[in-house]
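Milestone M4 deliverable, item 7.
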Amino acid sequence: MSRIGKKPVPVPAGVTASIDGRVLSVKGPKGTLSLNLRDEISYTLEDGSISVQPANETKGARAFWGMQRTLVQNLITGVTEGFTKKLLITGVGYRAASQGKVLKLQLGYSHDVNIDVPEGIEIKTPDQTTVEISGIDKQKVGQIAAEIRRWRKPEPYKGKGIKYDGEFIFRKEGKKK
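Output delivered:
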C-alpha cells in the first residue's frame, strides 16, 4: 500500500489543473506543464486537489501509484516555485561562464567545453566556480545538471571536479612515503 499515493495533491490558488483524455495539464504563474497519464492509475480532480488511486488491484498499478502521485506533485511545485540545482566547481583553473544560451566551461582540457542550454532552462553563474540551474521541469533541470557534472566528476584524492551543492565526496588518503 503506497503511503505517498494516499495523500491528495493540493492545487494552490493561482494554479489551474485540467484532465483532457489521458493528459494532465497544469498552468501556474511560472508556466504550463503536462503529464501523460497511466492507464493503471485513475486521477480525479476535486475541490482544490488531485487524487491519485490505482484503477485496479494489480501489482503494476500498485507499483506506479506512488510515483505518479509524486510526478503530479512535481508539476504543481514546478509551475508555482520552480526547481533549482547548484553545482560547485573545485580545481585550479576550473571555471564557468554563462554567455547567453551557452555555458562555457574550462575544466583542464585542451579546449573549452560549450554546453547549449535547452529551452525552458536558465543557467546563471554568480561567480566563476558556481553554476545555478533553474527551471519549471524537475527532470530537465536534473538532466542538464548531470550532463554538466559528467564532464569532470569529483575525484576522491584532491576533490577536484564538479559536484552538487551539499554532496559529500568521500576522500581517500594519498601515497605514503
